[in-house]
């Protein structure tokens, strides 16, 4: 009997000493071996599958190299089975939510009288991909009574019965009748004959997936079609290529609007080159994304966007950090960032923190798209709004947040995420949970080491959501590279893999790969550019959905008023950004206001004020009072003398 031990295959003979294997295949897989199955017709052949996404066939009389190897799955392969009657057919199930029917005819064909292998009917490779499941396929079995039927069982609690495609079935059956002199019994397979080849569609939709070992060597674990075509180029490759044709200089999108009139003369795609791509680096906590992303961006000549955090909300353009007011304002209105979450993950503000983190990633992703469309320079981001849900799910499974907060999060996500353009490439740096915990301890951040959030359950759920949900979903649009980062790695090795990817091969209109970046007309590119450059606030307003039935997301009016009063009392918050006193002749000060409320003073007796909320005439009144009224002591700040009412849209 044969057993799997780590990455090895070992066989024991019960008739002899069972303490030692009679034979073994060491390091049959680069990662954990998951399943094996013996060929029912050839006693020396066995098939194995493992976490390296590989399916291999071995002749254990010489186990140094497999006689057949395929890497068509994009994630762990849980099961592999020979067809009981037709040994050239293998069935496999994987965590990529697919069951694959694979042909291994080259190692299963009969030999003629001279010992030469007969021509094979089926070409080696994937014959059919079955994608009816929505989660990992853990089990797949052939029917014991009917050789063309099989069942697959998935983590989504779905049992699916499938059949071998009819045209493959007929090929095998016709080959059997076409060579009666070479026919064997029905049990022991069929001799195949040469017939015209039938073009089969490509079944790999995931691009390239590779594993980077501790020694820095790349080990391919998923298939990719390499086409001689210039794509993303690293620093070394760019230096060896001829100088590219000149293109327009970057557009100053920070100080200028990209208007319809400008779009008539300033074409968006004229700035694009092979490196005008969106690359997202993903991975667990403390894996080393920041260092790697910075090195990758430098090598590819792209702009690096560090991971978004709560500074986007708390650090204001006037130089103030809202955290400095925490000691003066009510607890429910204080700031709450990743430090607070790590120390107290069950806090009332934890749910609001995760929603604000999604908003921060969303805002940064818009900035990245704006930069690419206006300059033509590619961007490298650390995480994105598309992967933010993995932290929400980990918080929910760890009971840090309530079901109601989770529901609000997904409502906001559904309203907003479709407005963005998905990335071209996602790079996932994989690190097992024990290694993640070691990395957290090694970087010695007090709030992580001494906090209560980074539990084994929390980190495991992050890994599960990444591998079972996010990577599977994003790979339908983007190319995907996965690396084992247990021992670190080198950006140069990753750049070489990226240079082999062909992003321009997906040209069909309904092809999901790169669909967001196949805009048919220049005016469509201009519309997207104007949206992200000029109308970001429209996209950010998508988060203004009032939810009054979730207590964790609501602050009392009194607490909110106290908070605003403390902040407004600070001199730097008295006036709008960019306005200051220009002297007595021209007054540049403008009283503070928000988009949600306006206030003005009336002629009522002292101590009484009349409030106008969301009133356009009131805003005009403030404008004229501040700019037209002369006061030798400075313009009067009416907002400090009037109470305001905030309207929650």
Automatic annotation (TrEMBL):
Start and stop residues of the WD repeats: 26-68
Superkingdom of origin organism: Eukaryota
InterPro entries from the UniProt entry: Beta-prop_EIPR1-like (IPR059104), DNK_dom (IPR031314), EIPR1 (IPR040323), P-loop_NTPase (IPR027417), WD40/YVTN_repeat-like_dom_sf (IPR015943), WD40_repeat_dom_sf (IPR036322), WD40_rpt (IPR001680)
SMART domains registered for this protein in UniProt: WD40 (SM00320)
Alphabetical keyword list: Repeat, WD repeat
Record bears the keyword Repeat: yes
Protein name (Swiss-Prot/TrEMBL): SFRICE_020830
Organism: Spodoptera frugiperda
């Amino acid at each position: 009997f044969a057993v799997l031990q780590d990455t090895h295959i070992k066989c024991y003979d019960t008739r002899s000493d069972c303490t030692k294997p009679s034979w073994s295949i060491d390091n049959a897989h680069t990662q954990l071996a998951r399943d094996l199955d013996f060929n029912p017709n050839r006693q020396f052949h066995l098939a194995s599958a493992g976490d390296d996404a590989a399916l291999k066939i071995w002749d254990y009389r010489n186990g140094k190299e497999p006689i057949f190897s395929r890497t068509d799955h994009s994630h762990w392969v849980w099961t592999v089975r020979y067809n009981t009657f037709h040994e050239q057919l293998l069935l496999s199930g994987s965590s990529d939510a697919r069951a694959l029917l694979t042909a291994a005819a080259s190692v299963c064909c009969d030999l003629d009288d001279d010992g030469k292998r007969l021509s094979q009917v089926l070409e080696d490779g994937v014959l059919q991909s079955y994608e009816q499941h929505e989660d990992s396929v853990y089990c797949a079995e052939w029917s014991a009574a009917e050789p063309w039927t099989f069942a697959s069982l998935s983590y989504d609690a779905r049992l699916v019965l499938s059949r071998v495609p009819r045209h493959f079935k007929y090929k095998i059956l016709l080959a059997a009748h076409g060579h009666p002199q070479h026919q064997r019994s029905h049990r022991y397979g069929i001799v195949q004959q040469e017939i015209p080849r039938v073009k089969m569609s490509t079944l790999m939709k995931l691009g390239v997936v590779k594993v980077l070992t501790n020694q820095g060597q790349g080990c391919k674990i998923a298939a990719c079609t390499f086409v001689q075509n210039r794509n993303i180029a690293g620093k070394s490759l760019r230096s060896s290529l001829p100088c590219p044709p000149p293109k327009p200089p970057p557009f100053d999108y920070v100080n200028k609007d990209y208007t319809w009139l400008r779009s008539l003369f300033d074409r968006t795609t004229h700035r694009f080159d092979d490196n005008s791509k969106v690359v997202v680096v993903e991975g667990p906590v403390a894996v080393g994304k920041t260092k790697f992303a910075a090195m990758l961006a430098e090598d590819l000549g792209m702009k690096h966007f560090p991971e978004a955090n709560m500074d986007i909300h708390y650090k204001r353009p006037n130089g103030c950090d809202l955290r400095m007011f925490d000691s003066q304002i009510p607890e429910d209105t204080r700031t709450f960032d990743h430090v607070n979450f790590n120390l107290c993950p069950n806090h009332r503000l934890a749910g609001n923190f995760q929603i604000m983190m999604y908003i921060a990633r969303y805002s940064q992703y818009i900035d990245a798209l704006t930069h690419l469309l206006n300059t033509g320079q590619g961007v490298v981001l650390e995480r994105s709004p598309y992967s933010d849900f993995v932290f929400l799910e980990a918080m929910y499974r760890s009971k840090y947040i309530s079901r109601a907060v989770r529901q609000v999060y997904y409502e906001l996500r559904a309203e907003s995420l479709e407005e963005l353009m998905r990335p071209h490439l996602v790079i996932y740096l994989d690190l097992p949970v024990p290694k993640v915990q070691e990395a957290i301890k090694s970087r010695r951040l007090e709030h992580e080491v001494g906090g209560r959030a980074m539990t084994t359950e929390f980190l495991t759920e992050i890994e599960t959501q990444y591998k079972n949900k996010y990577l599977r979903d994003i790979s339908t649009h983007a190319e995907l590279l996965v690396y084992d980062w247990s021992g670190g790695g080198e950006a140069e090795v990753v750049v070489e893999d990226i240079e082999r990817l062909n992003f321009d091969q997906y040209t069909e209109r309904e092809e999901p790969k790169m669909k967001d970046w196949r805009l048919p007309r220049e005016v469509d590119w201009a519309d997207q550019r104007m949206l992200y450059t000029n109308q970001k606030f429209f996209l950010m307003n998508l988060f203004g959905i009032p939810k009054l039935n979730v207590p964790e997301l609501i602050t009392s009016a009194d607490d909110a008023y106290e908070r605003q009063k403390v902040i407004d009392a600070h001199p730097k918050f008295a006036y709008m950004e960019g306005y200051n006193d220009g002297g007595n002749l021209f007054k540049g000060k403008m009283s503070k206001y928000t988009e949600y409320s306006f206030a003005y003073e009336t002629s009522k007796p002292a101590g009484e004020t009349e409030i106008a909320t969301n009133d356009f005439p009131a805003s005009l009144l403030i404008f004229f009072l501040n700019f037209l009224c002369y006061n030798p002591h400075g313009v009067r700040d009416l907002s400090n003398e009037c109470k305001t009412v905030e309207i929650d849209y």
